[in-house]
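Below is how a single chain appears once it has passed through the pipeline. First comes the sequence as given, then the structure the pipeline wrote out for it. We keep one example in the README because the format questions we get most often are answered faster by looking than by reading.
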Amino acid sequence: MIPALQFVARRSEERGHADHGWLKAFHTFSFAGYYDRNHQQHGPLRVINEDRIAPRKGFGTHPHREFEIFTYIVSGELEHKDSMGNTEILKRGDLQMTSTGTGISHSEKTYGGKELHILQIWSMPSQNGLTPKYFTRHFSDEEKKDKWARVVAPAWEEDVKASVRDGTSGPAPVNSALTLYATILSPGQSLSRLLSGKKAYVHVVQTSGYNGGEAKGASVRFSGNAGSELELREGDGAYIKVNTQGAVMEVANTGDRKAEVLVFDLD
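Resulting structure:
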């Protein structure tokens, strides 16, 4: 019997890796000087960079177009400025979304004296030529503790449109067939997640510190039916093929510390 979910590990130490001194980066997909034809894109998901940026360092003003760019703040503070007039200091729990559309320019750097740890994620838009837009959302650790927080969702979903229109809280709107869930799972706890798309990607955030070798830290088991399962540690990720419509994935923290987990549900 074909399992409802099939997992292919993307181990942390196999990711692209760049150490520029002020910037230590891991690349899940081909990016900048890192190229691997086997890891270029997964559905609309194009970039997952796990970056650590030294205090008072960062990326000077540079342009982007035709990408949906969102930044998940793990620790530290980020100073953002862009050509749309947005200036903001972002901190732990914040999620910033820039729909670059026909073109924007921005700068991003560490604010304050502590190292900045972020996940920068890019997806391909469902259509080109969109008007650039900028959004920020905040999701506290309590909102993620042992439950799923829906932090990004397609801009065309009715509740997402309503939250944007009314200025209320809700997931950041993305112009891609992508929904992002986040959780901080306590030791011994487990969660289930219905996957509605044709594929998915999971990532365990490397919160225990920079490690260019084999992943350590938190340990998480992902499983489906028919005995399909995969154990991941911090920095590890996995491609998921969804073979059965409405398949449910089980996520269990099998380690001795909390685990911060991202699940991308993709069409």
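The chain has a mean pLDDT of 97.

See the next section for the split statistics.
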